[in-house]
Fold this protein.
Amino acid sequence: MSKYVNPYIPNSVPDEKEKMLQEIGITSVEDVFREIPEHLRFRGQMNIPPAFASEYEMRRHVEGLLAKNKSCKDYLNFLGAGTWQHYVPAVVDTIISRDEFLTAYVGDAYGDHGKFQALFETSSMIAELVGMEAVSTPTYDWANAIAISCRMAVRMSGRKQVLVAGTISPGRLAVVKNYCKPEIKVELLKYDTETGLIDLKDLESKISSETAAVYFENPSYLGFIETEGMKVSEIAHKSGAEVIVGVDPSSLGVLAPPSEYGADIVCGEYQPFGIHMQWGGGLSGFIATRDDKKYVAEYPSLLFGLTTTTEEGEYGFGEVYYERTSYASREKGKDFIGTTTALYGIAAGVYMALLGPQGMKDLGEGIMQRVQYTMGLLSEIKGLKVPVIKSPSFKEFLVNFDGTGKTVAQINKALLDKKIFGGKDLSKEFPEYGNSALYCITEIHTKADLKTLALALEEVTK
Amino acid sequence: MGKVKVRKGFQQARWNEPIIYEMSTPGQRAIYVPQPDEEIRVKAGDVLADLPVGMRRKELPNLPELSQKHVLMHYLHLSQETMGSNICHDISEGTCTMKYNPRINEELVSLPNFAELHPCQDEDTVQGIMEIYYKFEQIIKEISGMSRVTFQPGGGNAAVYTAASTVRAYWESKGELDKRNEIITTIFSHPCDAAAPHTAGFKVITLYPDKNGFPDIEALKAAVSEHTAAIFMTNPEDIGLFNPRVDEFVKIVHSVGGLCFYDQANANAFLGVARARDAGFDMCHFNVHKTFGTPHGGSGPANGAFCCSEELTKFLPVPTVEFDGAKYFLNYDRPESIGKVRDFMGTAGVIVRAYAWTMMMGPEGLRDCADASIINNNYMEKKMMEIPGLSSAFMGNGYRRQEQIRYSWEKLKRDTGIGTNEINNRVVDYGLPHYWTSHHPWEIPEPMTLEPCETYSKDDIDEYVETIKIIAKEAYEQPELVMAAPHKAASHKRNDEESLDDPEKWALTWKVYLRKHGKK
């Protein structure tokens, strides 16, 4: 042990360390590692940077590194595609930066009663938005939630195929494929490029008694609304398959809950609800179903339930059906469970409670109005094609630049000079849409922002 | 300090906080969403009318309606009814390494230069965060001795699943996946070392301990075969014993062609002391949120660093963060990659915090963590062993425990009828968080797993031990007091445990509670 007294290590005070060594009857610090054979010992000093001598110096260093970034506060941002820029109310940040929540872990519901209640309430509120009754504790992200949902459906039916709308995000699809390997076959469904909607004929031709589930998103990765959700569900149900719908819940103040158009399992992403983007690190998923043992028994996640205590009238919380989990049953449990994104689940709960019913509607409607308005502005620019997909959009939409003679990459570079992050380049992910970008508009965008975008696009595509 | 204090007068906040729906008053508002300008509204027209009727929400969602102060107050109350590790001595969480989580790191991740970064931004605008990823990867490589690291997994279990995916890809690339269908693990490794490989499609073989508590090497010899895909093992295991023959395990598995994954959830015990690669492992992982001082958030956001040897780097998830000498960039061009285990680049906030923490520690500070953890634990063990009714796993086998110990209340239970669950409820009454018993199955009867990592002072440990001693005494002298605990926690003891396992009674949401149990 060095002589430096580390502010994070109280027993690095030499006298304290000495007292403790004496107490355990050893003289040398080396002796504490006597169980590790010499040939396995690492000798010498690791080649990693030396410690900063003060918090201030470390702060300057990290701030210096982060200063090399340009953020969506510096630039006007129109990127979405799986992480979205929404306003984060101050109350949300206040709550999730409380040390009690921030630094909690796996305590039972007596000492951690508040954490259980907060997550139970998050489940209760998202259940209302999606029209379901049972909700998991948060998953790693939406992609993870889809993958888990697919595996739940496969276990319920013993069937081994999952059909997925072809417009799913490539990032989410990559996670799902890896998580479903090796026994589950993930097949993409064709879609109509004009409308973006699932090709129902293709669905009918691919679905069979081997199909465990049909998965689609609303709104889809390409921003449009899968308006024929009910028809998709009918076809799936006729074959005995489960319908899994993925949602961006910021749409659910205006869009119907997926349960109303046939969803059996709903999954989605909490990030739009009060979680900063953090370079994509703000993701947190959820899964919801009916309160039916058939479904509940298949969740791998911890499930928090409301119950009673020995004190009349007092609420208590506890873990529901714990035996399902890999914590309880190792490889005999459902998939695996570990530390995921609980704190973000609490953030999402605070957000939903802040917005309330009217706020949730205002959010969705206001976004759709801005999108409509922006599409109008952009459609007037020579060489731009908007809309590309004819179905109604929620907060994202494609803009096609084929008529400008420029690539999306060129246009986005030019926009960067105007301090604008243009929409995500989809020319490689979805080449059938040519030189198109996925633009995202949310409640953070003012009329001036949208006009700035239109003006800039007009200039850079000239 | 010096004088041992026990918090006999402790009382956790107990607000009897209603469920938020019970606090709702129709019409109240907590915040307004910025509404579009008049011109936008007029030009956009009735956007909802464009939606088919079946796709339109018919009624406003049933969310609570409160003023802003009441939302804030509600969640402040709930936070006060939660025991974060920064507010108490969380020696309780054996296997979890509950360290101090420095406040400075919370400030750093709140900076807009990090918090407001979009993952699809042009690479020129995210050089800073990529530099942090790259630099932290070099640090993790040095600590583990491995060749490459990915920070994409969202937690330790996700990193273990990444390892299982890598094993699958490795055997697939050799055309032997059908044959190589078994993964071996040990019973005192974390359950994910069994569950994640099983999820990835492997048959799991579990090794049990020998008489000294080490995974039985003879059982391993009998288990390996041409079907062995890999071994997934923890060391020190969750009972705190470092397996001194770990490299022999690796050699045995390698001798049949299998890969070796080192679950380093317990890495605090050997930072700067021993390295996974030096023992021959092909892969390992770190729970970044444990070992590198970042907050657990009540169970995440977490991050699992998955590390591998040169031979396996081609299977890493995409993208990797690269540096060409002038610029950092994301590399998606990895044709043999397993794909992705999480969308985008992982929980970047954990990496920023962990990097900041590591830069406050340096190589010496990391080594100090290992030293202090083991000294603390051995000190604590000596004191704990004076407590009547308490023993520990494989007590008296002559091997020093590393950074944690699995204790057992078996004797106390026999003597008094009070077991670990009751003791665990009682510790909260003294201002200590619930402790970690053990994953299941309980190989060690009535388990209690404690880990006094480097964060805790001698006084903290003395207080903890003294508190446990008092509770043990209570168990012998006033068993009914312990049986009925907790008394001073945010809530009292559940009176109907069965209801949590009964589909007729369980309630995962408020609406189901109302339906099944009626409004109180």
Q: What stands out?
A: Chain B has a mean pLDDT of 96. Chain B touches chain A through 224 residues (CB under 8 Å). Residues 255 and 283 of chain B are 17 Å apart (CA to CA).
